[in-house]
Amino acid sequence: MNTSNHIQKIFTRHHGIVDASTLLAEGVNYYQLNQLVDSGAVYKLKRGLYKWSDTDNYEMVDVAHMVKDGVFCLHSAALFHDLSTFIPGDHHVAIPDKSKVVLPDYPPIKLYYWDPLPYHTGIQEVKLNGAPIQIYSPEKTVCDMVRFRRRVGMDSMKEVLKTYLTKADRNLSLLLRTAKTMGIEKMMRSYLEILV
Question: What is the pLDDT at residue 1?
Fold first, then answer.
C-alpha cells in the first residue's frame, strides 16, 4: 500500500509533475490519486497530468509538461532571455507542425505549429528550480522575432534586436548563421546595418 509520503517522493523525483501512466507504473492506483486530489495535496493540471500542490515551480515548468515537445518561443523566449520588457498574456510555445495538443483552460498558451527546420533550430534546455524546459536560444529568438515581425509587431521586434545588440555575450556570427539557416540572412543584415 502506497503512503502519501511514498507518492510525494515519486512527484519529487519528477520535479513535482507526473503523468498518470508513470504513477500507475510506480504502483499508485486511481483511488489513491483521487484521494490526494480531493484532499488538495495533488491537483490536476489537465487530463492525465498531476502536480504536487506545494511544488515551487515556475509556471513555465507546468507548461513544459502540458505541451509535449513544446519549445518556448517569440515573446516568452524574449522575456526569459531579458531581450524584451513586454510581458505576454499567454505562453508562446512552438510545436512540430501537425502535432496534436490538448490545452488546459489555464494557464493561457498560444501554440505555433512550425515546420521541422524552424522548429529544431536553436533549441536549448534550461533548468528552472531543477526542472528542465526547452526554449529557443537568444539568437534563434531574435531571428524568430524578425521572421514574424508583422505578427509580433515591429516595435517588439526592434526592441528585441536592439537589446540583443547591447548584450555583452552577444554572438553576431551565430546570429547570422542562425539567420542563414532560417533563410532570413539578407533581411537580418539589413536590420543590423540600420541599428549598428
Answer: 46
What are residue 184's DSSP bridge partners?
none
Label the pairing between strands 91-96 and 123-128.
Answer: unpaired
Are residues 65 and 17 in contact, defined by beta-carbon separation less than 8 angstroms? yes
Reported for 120-126, long-range contacts at CB under 8 A and 24+ positions apart, including other chains, are: 121/178, 121/181, 121/182, 122/178, 123/71
Rounded to an integer, what distance in angstroms lies between the CA atom of residue 97 and that of residue 115? Answer: 5
Q: How confident is the model at residue 153 (pLDDT cuts 50, 70, 90)?
A: very high
Residues 6+ apart with CB under 8 A from 153: none
> d(Cα 57, Cα 21) in Å, to the nearest integer?
21
Measured at the CA of 120, the angle between CA 116 and CA 124, to 5 degrees, comes to 165
